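Re-run requested by the PI after the first attempt was lost when the workstation crashed. Everything re-entered from the original request form. Ligand of interest: adenosine monophosphate.
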Amino acid sequence: MTNYKTHYDESITDPEKFWMEQAKAINWYEPPKQGLSKDEKGFSRWFNGGKLNTCYLAVDQHVENGRGDQTAIIYESPVTYVSQLYSYRELQFETARLAGLLRAQGVEKGDRVIIYMPMIPQVVFAMLACARLGAVHSVVFGGFAAQELAVRIDDAKPKVLLTASAGVEVTRIIKYKPLVDEALELADYKVNKVIVWQRPFVKAGMKEGRDLDWASLLEKAEPCDCVVLDATDPLYILYTSGTTGTPKGILRDNGGHAVALKYSMNHVYNVEPGETYWSASDVGWIVGHSYIVYAPLMHGCTTVLFEGKPVKTPDAGIFWRIIEQYKVDVMFTAPTAFRAIIKEDPKGKLHQRYDTSSLRNVFLAGERCDVATYEWLDTLLDVDVIDNWWQSESGWPMICNSLGYGMKPLKPGSATFPVCGFDIRIMDANGQEQPANEEGAVVIKLPLPPGCFPTLWNDDERFINSYFSTFEGFYLAGDGGYKDEDGYIFITGRTDDVINVSGHRLSTSTIEEVVAAHEAVAECAVIGIADELKGQIPVGFVVLKAGIGIPEDKLEAELIKTVRLQVGPVAGFKRAAVVKRLPKTRSGKILRATMRSIADGKAYTQPSTIEDPAVLDELKELMSEQEIGIAFSDDSSAS
Ligand code: COA
Ligand code: AMP
């Protein structure tokens, strides 16, 4: 195997040559003749002219090549007491028929399909069936409320919406269909067809003329073959949070995505076809798209689809039980999942009940891997724990100890070095590269490698403005960080109003809009503050309108309820405090970063433009009184 440095240097000095070589690992219908090109908008595209089908790569090719009887999907659902295995042959059968069903309902190449479903096998069949047809899926995470689903419906304009009657959150049944009905009422765009998978424990009400029963349609469906697609054809849209209340539709193409994910399975995760790869995330997030569904399947692995939580389903030993039962080779999740386990089982006693010797590595991503969690895991397990940094925008890791090239020494707190293709720099505000150990903006020199988003759905302007207009020739990641003297990169957190709650990326602006709309609220700021369990939690600070005499606890309860109803339970919005005034600059900008530093107990420099420095002392006093923030709380995880 080539060493990391040689490959990395090649990938930066001659990216086209490097990625054209990697593209040979894909079973194209017609291989591409060029690596990088510009499209009609002037945006960079990979492998234009190459022909392929992602569903063929994830399913059919394995049946043709002798993996038909290998388990493709292990569905493990402790919340419904169901375990099911699907072989690649069965996956092909299910996917081809579902594609036939969708085609019979008028879905063709380029049409959008919204998928709002829990973690059941049908959600994977649905994604793959869309890929098979060349339809563009957009999976919306089940923890988002109807309003958020409506926003995505209006933006994606789907021909069909796929859903299930219900999901299960630990022991609570969450009915999905009423949320879909409400979203369709709220949306301006009219969706004519809703296809519903009825789960045995909840039967969803159906609206005649619009709602169709998935299982009955499937009985009559004819299997459908894979459609030949261009490498640059879109595969999916995944909405993610930006700095405004409107989500960004990350677009993913077929060709670059396939090449990047295939490369990552070999070179980053060091996984062989036939091995069992378990990503304990949700298909509603990028980790789920890439490493529950597409990468493991395209690589011919067995993937685990887990409908449960790291704790309480039934206990904090569930991860270890699944690893033992299915002989999981490699596992991937967010650090917050292990923090939840640590809280319930600090000494890792439940781990002793299981044989986890099949496990080779644990990969962590989705949020900063705190050193305490890393050390707990490293001590408990006899395997290397590997941090990897990436985003919905990249679709695959950008910084990681690429294990396919051999393991490099770890430094806790750092995801180590850039993955091949990513020329990562740290910049100061003037676009000058920072010296070692100086913090700055994390940027990536263009071109971005295959797999990264070619644009935002319906919003080329925002694509340019958000990511490429700050430093010419560089992608702005939105994270801060530094490189140490050995070139290890440390990510220190978002530099914008995006927050990370239990590994879920959220925008404080979305929550702020809901809080600000309350009739008693004159103005407000929602900030993400540090939390020992969830990484960050959103907290609202509100100024009341003059003459409003609402009790604070009543207002807080109302705000919590409204955010839950309008953004979704996933926002984890559980604290709102009334303040007399908010700290602002003389030009009226709220000093959110300073507020965050106070709550997190971090040093800050009082901005010279502050309107009235006394507000910061008032705020500190209030946080201390109400135990808001890690700096003031006895037990922040309980907040
Ligand atoms: N449908 C409906 N509701 C959902 C939901 C879904 N798909 N997913 C989450 N929710 C609800 C939860 O029930 C919870 O509701 P509550 O406030 O009534 O308790 C709320 O949204 C917040 O959920 P979550 O952030 O998941 O918190 P949690 O306390 O239920 O669990 C963890 C915390 C750490 C155990 C869990 O978030 C987890 O396993 N995360 C790690 C892995 C991961 O998925 N990362 C994503 C990117 S890699
Ligand atoms: P998402 O697009 O949902 O994957 O969220 C991406 C954001 O999560 C990044 O911009 C980071 O802020 C954060 N993130 C993801 N992985 C890591 C990591 N390994 N270390 C630190 N932050 C991370």
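Saved to the shared folder this time. The longest strand covers residues 521-531.
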